[in-house]
Specification:
de novo design (two linked rop proteins)
Length: 131
């Protein structure tokens, strides 16, 4: 049947699962008091989903790949924030492990999508050299 909507993408589905995990983990406990940190973590997890969705809506694989690369950067930001949340004692070892596993699973799908997009891109038109 194929992918007809960005929500059909395995990478987006895994990113959405991670986003829901982040929302759950930032809805209670001491992290709620650290509004700026909590907002940054939530924004980063939203960014993974949003960039995959926006890239899907673009007209070609080249632009989709660019947005997928940005999504991967947001995913790395989520991982860094979870490590910081653990260091600040906002989350425990088990929560960090679960979050890291979700990040790894999402990253595999995002990188797989990126490889596919890059392998199917049209070559760039040659640039004309000045005479």
């Amino acid at each position: 049947m194929g992918v007809r909507h960005f929500t059909d993408l395995a990478a987006w589905q895994r990113a959405d699962d991670l986003r829901r995990f982040v929302l759950d983990q930032t809805s209670a406990g001491p992290i709620v008091q650290d509004w700026k940190f909590r907002t940054q973590l939530r924004d980063a997890s939203d960014g993974v989903c949003r960039n995959l969705a926006e890239g899907f809506g673009r007209y070609g694989h080249r632009e989709f790949a660019r947005f997928t690369t940005i999504a991967k950067g947001s995913l790395d930001e989520v991982e860094d924030a979870l490590i910081a949340a653990h260091a600040k004692r906002y989350i425990d070892d088990e929560t960090l492990a679960v979050g890291t596993a979700k990040i790894r699973r999402t990253a595999a799908a995002v990188v797989g999508l990126l490889k596919y997009l890059r392998s199917t891109m049209e070559p760039e038109p040659p640039t004309q050299s000045p005479d």
